[in-house]
What does this fold into?
Amino acid sequence: MRRDTRGSVKVKAAFLALSLCAPPFVAPRASAAQERRPPVRRDAAALRRALAGAVGGEFEIVRDELTRRSAYHGGGAYWLAHVRPKRPGSFTLKYAYGYEDPFTKGETSATRAEHSFHINVGPRGCWRRPAHMTSRFEPCLGDTVILPFALDAYRRVYAGHTFEFAARPAAARDAPAGPEAWELTLLRQQDAKLRRDEVVNPLAEHLKYLGSTAEVRLHRAPGYTAEYHATFEAVRPGRFNLLLGAGPPGADGGAAGVPVIIVERGTPVTWLAAHESVSEFVGRFSSHAGNSYLTSPVIMQPGERLTLPYDGYTRRGPRAETDRGGGAEENHRPPVITRLPFRVNPDESFNEWLVEHLPKGN
It folds into this structure.
């Protein structure tokens, strides 16, 4: 008697197809605090000597440390140099290294990478957040800047680090007591766009609410995005988390808000260099990109401004094309301001490098 196996063959084929199409199981990532970090084996003393020789006395190396980013954060070993400028000016620090690209099949491909930090240092007691630019900061004389130097990021084999330094010292001058004339002109233009709503501000003694604005960005396809921002001005020192929304507290799913620290003007603080330019050279070819070392805490002085988004929406389709953002003002709602206890999540972005060096007290 002959047995028909065609049905079982079809079933096996179906199971095989499903197994090939099913996504592989990926274990959840452990938090940075839970993951064991192996020690970094590098010669920090040699790196410090090389950096000190390059800056030529323009910067004081306050401290340095070797650290390793967790797999949760992408991995990689870094050397963190805490430097303090000795005079105001515009400075560029470059470091380069050679490495072998592990993705070339059986070939040795010598590749060179070059990283650049650009630092503008103002006089002692300067306005770190220029009044006309609410999202940028510049260190003042007396501040400390943390510079992260990659050692084995991307799991590549490195071949030494060399440093290059360029400086354009600024003319000696005292820090201005307030915004200059041209900055005041820009401030008036910004203030003219503010919608001055009556809001309940539990942070009024530390952070003055100035108003809100609606920004409309048109899409290439029919439609637009409307985003609403709230602008504040620091009044007196304090530490808190600022939570903004368009609805009652808790409607945001338990967000922690933005950590804000207001210090007396002229108080020295520590910053983490927020951006670097990166160039890679392979033979006759080169590529250019950048790395951002973002942190969530905001450090301010009385008189400096902060602008944050708190609401927004997107419209698409023929009706949105006809409207072209005209409904943004009609949908404009004032922000709901909530004060939360001061807290910085060390697992967020690059906070772990800065959290120990934030201003204390207040």
